[in-house]
Amino acid sequence: MINGVPFCSTLEQNTLSFPVSNYDLEQTLTSGQAFRWNLEGGSWTGIVGSRWVRLTAGSGTIVAHVATPVSDWNWVSEYLQIVVRLDQILPTFPEDDAMKAAVEACAGLRLLRQDPWECLASFILSSTKQIVQIRQIIHELTRRFGQPLCVPSGFAPAWSFPSAEVLASVPESELRSCKMGFRAPYLAAAARHIASGDLDLESLRSFPLAGARERLMELPGVGAKIADCVLLFAYGFPKAFPIDVWIFKAIKELYFSPRARRKLNLGKIRLFAENYFGPNAGYAQQYLFHYMRTRDRARSPQ
DNA sequence: TACCAGGAGAGCG
DNA sequence: CGCTCTCATGGT
């Protein structure tokens, strides 16, 4: 929306320019929240919902281009969280040196607002995998079980993310052949729970954070970390705080003395994060996470 | 070749 | 509880 006016008109077009301020598209799309964006000829191509879209960052704008003309563009601004005022979020972060360095290094980084099922399924597939491999698994999954999407000529083919209903009906062996290994039964079971209505992902939007977290963690293959990723990247709970090995290590080394580090466990880290990072702890986490990873990558190329 | 990667769950003391 | 082991696969 621009000044409260939705990006919607009767005019159908295949390109729209969104005015943005303080938005770093590249960092946002490569910070490990979403796994389906590709850099093609200076622009980012990917799938939002069931539409192929190409995003091009300009100075003060993000230009969105779709394959077939649309009049409603709110799905783009919602996904990219364009109207979120970073200048109201960053001041809520704690003002320690590491956090300041992260905010400086990751200026313009945003949290996306993704589809809950795609996000849930993707993070079920993410466990003990590197991002490159997660991308490969998801690509294979969409290629085999998703719907082919309309893509402009000259661009790589694309598919929608397969629904829970579709994946619930796929034999587990077929999932395994997408290279997901021991994650296959988790994904299959989660798909069945969603498809059967046992868990209604939409209803979680009105849940309090703890309640939504509990429901997600009832799914097989979904522990605290994956639940928190979904709560942050799909539902936008501002205090959801995924703690993976990177964040665990970062918090341990940045905020605890060598002596205190010895008897740290996940519960203590979570308690610290809950109290320390403020009302937008999830946002702060994403800055720290991306900062630590890009910094370490710069020091020792993987 | 051997090791390890953005976890979760089962089994143990 | 809190710790350790296992799970499947591909990349280095």
Written overview of the protein:
The chain has 15 helices and five strands. It has 302 residues and is α+β, with helices and mostly antiparallel strands. The protein has helices spanning 25-29, 74-80, 86-89, 97-105, 116-124, 131-145, 164-168, 172-180, 184-195, 209-217, 224-233, 245-255, 258-261, 266-276, 281-299, and strands at 8-19, 38-40, 43-48, 51-57, 61-72. The relative contact order is 0.13. The chain is globular and about 60 Å long. The mean pLDDT is 94. It is 46% helix and 13% strand. Strands 1-5-4-3-2 form a five-stranded antiparallel beta sheet. Strand 2 (38-40) and strand 3 form a beta hairpin. Helix 5 (116-124) packs antiparallel against helix 11 and helix 6 runs antiparallel to helix 8. The structure holds a DNA duplex (13 and 12 nucleotides).
Question: In terms of topology, how is this protein built?
Answer:
Blueprint: E1 8-19, H1 25-29, E2 38-40, E3 43-48, E4 51-57, E5 61-72, H2 74-80, H3 86-89, H4 97-105, H5 116-124, H6 131-145, H7 164-168, H8 172-180, H9 184-195, H10 209-217, H11 224-233, H12 245-255, H13 258-261, H14 266-276, H15 281-299
Helix pairs in contact: 4-15, 5-11, 6-8, 8-9, 10-11
The protein binds a DNA duplex (13 and 12 nucleotides) through residues 32, 123-124, 126-134, 136-137, 176, 179-184, 186, 220-226, 229, 242, 244-247, 265, 289, 293, 302.
